[in-house]
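Section 5.1 Outputs to date
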Amino acid sequence: MALSVRALGGRAALFVLPLLAILAGRFATHTALAAEHPRTAALLFLWLCADALALAMIAKAPKKRPGVRALLGAMAAGCIVATIGAAAPVREALFDMQAVAMAMGLTVLAWAGWSVSVLVRDLRRGQSLAAAAEAVFPPQLVGFAAKELAMLRLALLRWGEAPDVPPGAQGFAYHRVVNPMIATFLVLQLIEIVVVDLLVSHWSETAALVLLALGIWGALFIVALMKAFRLYPILLEAGHVRVRSGWLIDMRVPLDAIEAIEPSISDAETKRPDVLNAAILSHPNIILKLKRPLEHQGVMGRTRLIERVAFRLDQPAPFIEALEQKF
């Protein structure tokens, strides 16, 4: 346990420390001293960004030996960050140094060209787009982008689709209880988006646009979540119960691992680490007590052992009857 906590802290430090260094350099470019010496400030900030990202890449690489393309990507990212993050006078000084600006552009183009060639090569070999992208970008970034694209596709498309119930399985809905409450939050959020945009725009149009974008993203997230609750019911399949809560929870519970269906569970018990509570904004009415602990990996990658699985169904009686027939 101590080793896992230490490893998690080390990974966090590899993300936080370069970010703090770059933020400190960015603030330094806005000082009077940087305004008096913009070229020196530009070169120092460019070096800081590229060096911080490259050192983080080396520290995270297996045996501290990243590939040449990975290091080139870190330096290209440093060039982009330095361009975007520097104060306006420092940025102008950076572009005034034609040799430096040309070197930055060539670095970015070299990484982009190399990465595209690797991506095209892997796609021609039959790999999926996600697998090919992981050879170019960090896997965590690819996974995050894939989830965001799936969320947007679900929010904007897939209207009127039938619930995902494979042949031979029985689906049990749970969205009729939770979706009306979430719809209320959606209406309140839409009102908040308009009010915040009107108020903040009087102070800063840029801040208003950022908050507007975040508000729209949040509204799309809620729409996708409501649709996921309807499209992904809990399933009783051959050999297991598939407990789902939208895309937030997806766990298969083997039938031979279920000891009993408990009548109730307290609020305090639903918060225990060995209890998987799949009831969103409601109290569970189905509690599966397990004969043996089962491993479950959450959305954020955290793994824990589960001894009871709790969820809520719109109509629990048909599920209990169907499950009892399986034993």
